[in-house]
Amino acid sequence: MRTKQAIVGAFAALMLVAGCGGGLSEEDYQQEVEGILEPLGTRLQEIGNQQVDPNSLDDVAAQLGEADTVLQDGIDDLEGIEPPEDLQAPHDRMIGALETFEQATADAETAAEDGDAQAIVQDYPAAATEFQAELDETVQDFQDAGLDVNAPTP
Question: What is the residue extent of each domain of the chain?
Answer without folding.
Answer: 2-140
